[in-house]
Structures are given as C-alpha cells and as structure tokens.
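Reviewer 2 asked us to include a model.

Predict the structure of this chain.
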Amino acid sequence: MLDTLNSERFADTAPAAVHATLLDEGRYLGSVRTMYRLLAANGGTRERRNLRVHPAYTKPELLAVAPNQVWSWDITKLKGPAKWTCFHLYVILDIFSRLVVGWLIADREDADLAQQLIADSVARHDVEPGMLTLHADRGTSMRSKPVAALLIDLDIAKSHSRPYVSDDNPYSEAQFKTMKYRPDFPARFGCIEDARVHCQAFFAWYNTVHRHSGIGYMTPHNVHHGHAKHLRGVRQAALDVAFHATPIRFKGRRPEPHALPTAAWINPPPSEAINPKSSQPCAVNS
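Predicted model (structure tokens):
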C-alpha cells in the first residue's frame, strides 16, 4: 500500500482519490483511514508548503495601583458624511482611574500626531520619568519610530498587545464601546468639527459624570485626583443613617458602599485572576 501511495502515479494524489481510482480498477488495498495512518507513520502527511513561523510573543501583564502608572491608548474610526469617509479618534486612558488623559481627532492616522498627543498628555499630568508604562495594540502609529523615540526621551516604558489577540487592550476597547453605545452617538458626522464638538461633550461627561462599576461607581476624575476615599465616607455615612433608622430593611447587616479600586490589571496572573479580593479591582466594565 505504501509503495502504491508513493508511486509516481499517485505521489500527488489524495488518499481518498487513490482509494476511488483503485476501486474503479477492481483493486482494494485498504480503507482511506488506513492509508492516512500509514502515511502519517512514515512522514507522508506533513504540510507541503513553506509556511511562515510566527515568533512567540510574550503576553503583556501590567499592573497599576495608582494613577499615572499605566496608560492605554488606541485609535478608532468615526464615520464621516459620505460612504468610505471617516475621522480618526486618538484616545489615551489611565487604566487605574479610567480617566481620559488626552484625545484628538484627525482626518488621518499619523505617527507625528500620536507623538504630539502623548507628549502633551504627559506634560499636562506631570508624569514623572520612569513611572509610566504606555500600552497599545500593534497598529502602525503605535509601533512607529517617532513614538518609540519619544517614549525613550520621556523615559516611558512601552507595551504592545500580541498579534491577533483581541483582549490585550481591554480598557481602551471598553471606553470606545461606551462612547459608541451612547444614545446621542450619531450614525455619521457631518464634518470633522461636528466630531470634535461631540467628543468634547462626551469626554467631559465620561470623566466627570459617568460612574464606572470597575472603580466602585466613582467618576474617573474623582479617582484620579484622590477624592474617591472621601466620597466613599460620605456614602457610608448615608448608609449608616438608613441602617440605624430601619435595620430590618438590611436584615441586620450594616451596608457598605462599593469597594474602591486597589489595582488594575492587563492580563492578571492566574493567582490574581481567581483571587476574590482582587477580582473587583481588575474589572474593566465601563
């Protein structure tokens, strides 16, 4: 059977076709499965093409326990006035506080624009050298030489998602989803000025009004600027009044406000992912 399969006649023919051809000639050497098993045992079923071997990429594992330790940034497209037209929205997000620390809209994706946005955001928030990690996917602007050179100059560590992995940049993806699922988000923008006006209102709301489940239903502004602990005390005082007034409503248990974030992970290690005490701070809900 192996000699027949490797013969000049059948060397480039699939076992099922060989099997059918032999049956047409009144010959039966074995089943198709047996042919495959015999070929596999003798190295006859490997991929014949020279396929590219992708390098092994390390899974990014990033931890932030305070603001301005890990930022995530990405670019999304906003539909323009006509079909096939769009504007590019650049957004940088602090993963601990969820605060949008910088954004811009342009009619193109450009590494120089990204470089300027990063530099302006770092200067505005007084980020200390050597303290910040900037995470992004593997887009052309994210891996560009101008951005890489800027990060070296500012002493900022860079991190990139793995290729073809959709959940290595969850905070930016969640923020974009929140934006595009808002009731006032239009199907298309009439011009780039319309898009800028919309984003100015949205990011003001997102940073100062919107309450995230992942940060104890605080606003990003309050968490980023250290007001969350005081506000949690205010919430606790209000709950204590309600509890002492009617303890039966709470089944005799003193209610507590949602916990404040203590850590924010991108790809937490297994020990952190399954730890009940760390599961809430790792949430990405927007």
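The radius of gyration is 28 Å. Residues 2-41 form one domain. We have added this to the supplementary material.
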